UniProtKB/TrEMBL annotation:
Protein name: Pentatricopeptide repeat-containing protein
Annotated GO biological process: RNA modification
PANTHER family: PENTATRICOPEPTIDE REPEAT-CONTAINING PROTEIN, REPEAT-LIKE SUPERFAMILY PROTEIN, PUTATIVE-RELATED
Transmembrane domains' residue ranges: none
4Fe-4S in keyword set: no
Species of provenance: Vitis vinifera
């Protein structure tokens, strides 16, 4: 690489993060520091994202800790916190993810609650799933998808009266469940059938 600056390093680290090559992204992150290039906000988002998508919990905690302690001359923003919440939730460390959300200096947004909810669902914690889904409904009461999600969680819990309440709220609010669309190719290059699901 002829010209190495923070932008080229960020591109490299983010590309590796997207390719789920977390260990390699972290290696290049530390290499960047060794070469005297100062990390910026984007660098830290990229490397935390790499840790999250590669299950590198300890490394993500360590890097976030350095950010919190002022090593990088700026403090974590919303996206840094979102990456850490995603990191912890994906790993099933749900209580710590919850603590991060309650202690951060701003209110959790829908991205954070969505990441937390995905982790709760993946690790089978229906009570925390319900809590997160309710938070999403509070944040965007006009989004029918969140009501459907909450209804599905209640169904998994066997709480049928709550399923009915949520569906009634949707009906009263004029909210609908979006139709899904799937395509399957039966014979190459011939006909494609679309299946609509309610």
């Amino acid at each position: 690489m002829k010209e190495k600056n923070v932008f080229t390093w960020n591109s490299l680290i983010k590309g590796l993060a997207l390719a789920r090559s977390g260990a390699e992204a972290v290696w290049w992150f530390y290499r960047m520091e060794q070469e005297g290039i100062k990390a910026d906000e984007v660098t830290l988002i990229a490397v935390l994202c790499a840790c999250s998508h590669s299950g590198m919990v300890q490394m993500g905690r360590q890097i976030f800790g350095s950010l919190m302690n002022g090593k990088y001359e700026f403090f974590p923003g919303v996206k840094h916190y979102a990456c850490v919440i995603d990191l912890l939730a994906r790993a099933g460390i749900l209580q710590e993810a919850m603590e991060v959300m309650t202690r951060m200096p701003f209110e959790p947004n829908k991205v954070m609650w969505g990441a937390f909810l995905a982790g709760c669902r993946a690790h089978g914690d229906l009570e925390l799933s319900e809590f997160a889904a309710r938070k999403l409904v509070e944040l965007e009461p006009g989004n029918g998808a969140y009501y459907v999600l909450l209804s599905n969680i209640y169904a998994e819990m066997g709480r049928w009266s709550d399923v009915e309440k949520v569906r009634r709220l949707m009906k009263e609010g004029g909210l609908t469940k979006d139709l899904g669309c799937s395509s399957i190719e039966l014979e190459p290059q011939e006909r494609v059938y679309e299946l609509l699901a309610e």
